[in-house]
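Running log. JK asked me to keep both predictions on one page so they can be read side by side. First protein, sequence followed by its tokens:
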Amino acid sequence: MTSESKARLGDLHSHLVPGVDDGARSLDEALQAVEAMVEAGIGTIVTTPHIRASVFHDTEKAERRISEVEAAYRRLAVAVAERFPQVRLGRGFEVMLDVPDPDLRDPRVRLASTDFVLVEWPRLRIPRGTNAVLARIRADGFTPIVAHPERYHGLDPELRIPRSWRQTGALLQVNHGSLVGRYGNEARLRALRLLQDGTVQYLSSDHHPRPNHGLDLEAVERLFQEAGAEESFQCLTQVNPNRLVQGEAPVPVPGFTPRKGLLGRLGDIWGGRN
């Protein structure tokens, strides 16, 4: 991929707003992270601090939380505009679905004020009724994007649950780090299997600026190149993220088959099943 095309890569999941969650602790740390993302070829960044959906049931508490994040985000946005004018910066939240009836009507909660919203469940565990929650969000007129489905505990090897989420109209976002083993071999195998048949729409960093949490984009791109799947990589990291910030639905992602033997080796590690 040329440097010009790489500059148009997009990232829809990161924790760069300083001092509001478990991400960047200071403005300097956030700017260092943005610099690293720019050097990796990312030109569109939507940063997504954590928020609990239950907060939205208390209007006063929700406004306090959103205003706190907005103030910190504005400081970041001013600094990014000065140092990295080529970056298109936006924000939303990573909404933890700790209640079955999230109120997502406030556009500040959603990704870049579109109808797309990044969601997760607490403690990387899948409660009962996840399909109903996602279907309810869709019925309210919004499109949920489930963050890092490959990292959830208790998934079966066929990954029936995340595939069923797609049947509700939800979209899926896999972490870069999962594809290079940052979260272990099980998460890596799950990520690869979801990518095989085009079940995933977005790849993003979930970047938390920390010494042990770097960016894995170069290694991920190499993985796709070795498989002859450059088109899939472009859809996941460039086309679809940039369509999202325009409020547009993702294009279908071609299936991705990793280099011969990789899935088998990981399957042997994960209970001996392919």
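And the second, directly underneath as requested:
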Amino acid sequence: MIETLAKNLVNLKKQFVSDYDGTSQIQELIPISKSELFPIDESELNLLHEFATKNPIYYNSFEKIIDGISCIVYEGDINKYWLNSIQHDSSHAPFSPTWIMSGYLLSLFAKENEYSEIIDIGSGDGRIAYCGGVHGMKSYSIELDDMLVNLQKSLTTNVNFNSTCFDAIKFDYLSLNLTKPLFFIGGLAQMGGLELAAGVLNRVKSNFNLWSKTGWSFAGTLSKKYSADPKNNAGWGSFIENNGLQLIQNISLPTAWSFHESDETQYVFAKSF
């Protein structure tokens, strides 16, 4: 189901790109109602729209039928949050979000693969953790940037995603009493993701019981703008091999930074063993 929904979302995004004539810095869409291509409960779709409508990065929205699917398009500007986020060192990637619908599918992967918790590392505005909450999962959003954490806390909704302002490579994950977590690492390998992932992984690795039950998701790219990894996997192949992780699968999904790219962002899933 995940693969089909992801493919449908990518196809919808491509049609959206070809039709879009706006000038906003970021733009994305969310279907309005359940359909054959997106058989998502309307209560969950409503929660995704609620996240977008309450999120200050979006300044405009409008209805649009795209490839036969009624959607709401959200236009936004992340500039002030991006500028604030680049003050941190090279192990912390600047803020550039995935699509809300992509966050929904990423957290659905966690649920369908029987993970118990989502830990969103370098969570930005918290959308992946929020989507985990939409799926009824226990979610934790860990972000170093105080402006982004304040944004998260301003999103007063019925979905609890445990927003925390802390350096993820120093956080005590044992304090969360995790049972079978999936960690989402924000940032491309070439944009601070490797350092961030290594720091978090070493914290988790120190406890074998937690390590052996943990899953990982890394944001990767096929773009020629970035140096390739000799082991491939969208920049994460060597890291996965060197840290004794087992590759599960890759899923392509739209993000803010891939809107004008021919290839979508690759989410690389692996597990400890």
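Observation for JK regarding the second prediction: The chain has one domain: 2-272.
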